[in-house]
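Q: What structure does this chain adopt?
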Amino acid sequence: MHVKHLSLADFRNYREAELDLEPGVTVFVGPNGQGKTNLVESLGYLATLGSHRTSVDSAMIRAGTDAAVIRALLRHIDRELLVEVQLNRGAANRAQVNRAAVRTRELPRYFSSVLFAPEDLALVRGEPSTRRRFIDELLVQRSPRLAGVQADYARIVTQRNSLLKSARAQRMKESQLSTLDIWDERLVELGSELIDRREALVGELAEPLRAAYQAVAGVDQQPRVLQRLSIYGAASDDDDGDASSGSFRDGGSGASSTIGRIETADAFRAALAGVRRKELERGLTLVGPHRDDLLFELNELPAKGYASHGESWSFALGLRLASAQLLRVESVIGDPVLVLDDVFAELDSARRRALASAVRDFEQVLITAAVLEDVPDVLEAAIVKIKAGEVVADE
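A:
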């Protein structure tokens, strides 16, 4: 699949933009702050229903306007598909496919992309929420139905937290909280599916990650991903929902089966019972996938804290390339669109060449760069110049 035409209205600094694109490599070039990243951010939103730069949709709506529109004409073999979303400042977002209304969360069914950006260094060095977002976005791209499961789970956590806060304020006893038991069952049902789905995906990432890391780093090291699960260990003392302890599990153990879900659900219920008093004291749900983490290891040592700057970059690149490989193998709509946002400027010359070799066989690769010299010559590319929210040249 590739994007044949991209149209924006009141998105970021673009009042309007119309851009024809072709398969192969396209480089958006221009000084920083002109709008290159905004173009690729719009495509990332269609694929993941989120931005790699902000968690607030309204931040992507041009100042002084109430809505932004992203519209992409997609082509796969001889079939074309028009996908669009309207981001609304004061109302729910709206989506269409071939001019017919669909639920916004269905958009990942029709378009797939993988974006790598400088912010991805936080996957290795940043907070657990960044890693949870990485794995959950990939889950949705592979199985769009899980967007609904994730949204329902987040809503249950919010409602359960409200009940816990109310119980704390009213000094209610555990015996008076029969309503909490009802929320617990729904929390366990949805949360267990997310935990097991994540675990299965971690297992599937193992071999593509090893291959991708070696491709970009040029050395035979052993990257590994494990799940840190709050339901198998003590809850964190942090208020931000990040688990600081708990057991680790790698994937590939069949956890997505019915038996796996039953075992996870039993452990989830036991964990909730064990932290009930502490939850009432703090007014927070202390165990569940919203408090889990991924542990990235390199040669059996935690990448966070032990990996060098170059190794951390290679790990983050490996994660994105492994994701792209998984999506291209199983997709019925072809390769995901691969987006490299200002990445080459952050890499040394060896990693630039290695990355270029690793991506050039994808059907469509979109690159942003402040200067064209950052992009290796091995990538034969169309050049699109961007200045102040406008396409000023298309060569």
